[in-house]
Hints:
- The chain is of the alpha/beta class.
- It has eight helices and 14 strands.
- Strand 2 (15-18) and strand 3 (21-25) form a beta hairpin.
- It is globular.
Amino acid sequence: xxxxxxxxxxxxxxxxxxxxxxxxxxxxxxxxxxxxxxxxxxxxxxxxxxxxxxxxxxxxxxxxxxxxxxxxxxxxxxxxxxxxxxxxxxxxxxxxxxxxxxxxxxxxxxxxxxxxxxxxxxxxxxxxxxxxxxxxxxxxxxxxxxxxxxxxxxxxxxxxxxxxxxxxxxxxxxxxxxxxxxxxxxxxxxxxxxxxxxxxxxxxxxxxxxxxxxxxxxxxxxxxxxxxxxxxxxxxxxxxxxxxxxxxxxxxxxxxxxxxxxxxxxxxxxxxxxxxxxxxxxxxx
Length: 285
């Protein structure tokens, strides 16, 4: 049986944004957020980095066969490092592309070039980091549509981390506008559902996953939203995942922790594939 980590983060250094300020690596697991120093990783991460070699080491130790490298503006833009990592471990890794959605047409051209010339596929959007410096912007704003149109034309998947009720409404518009995109809702709805304890939003997303053939969920990191309330084996998270399976079926909630199937890339199409005897790990973040 093949085991796949669907949501793994690697980076040579932190160079992202959070709390409306730049976030950069310091030493011993610490980062600088604006003028403030904060513990971000355990001190064992001496350079406050998450190198691909460390990921591979953990994969071998834990029996993980393959992993999907997932970007996020929170950590910074690391397409070049992702490309290097995939070339170094082609049998182990695939990687998702990241561009600045706010650049609209320019970002769409950059993304098309990535699809045409590199090993990367798909597109990741994390709404909080993306819109921190543009709080009035929305996913389906007209000037951002060229990016979604590019993804749609290339039949690529979008991995989306939702934070707000508005994000959910905007995503629904995009689902209806761009039928060639395969949508993967990261962390089963993430902050838009669990951090705000809005299970009505979770029910809405479950119905989308059930009803739309091109909408899926990944179950990575769900226990994080309950780790201040309970410890392993995270019974609330188990109930959430079971609810998703009962409502939408394992084949639609299979990206993060499934009994068959995985995400993959074929000829730069970023196709979503199902396969027998495959179980995807819950993901690292």
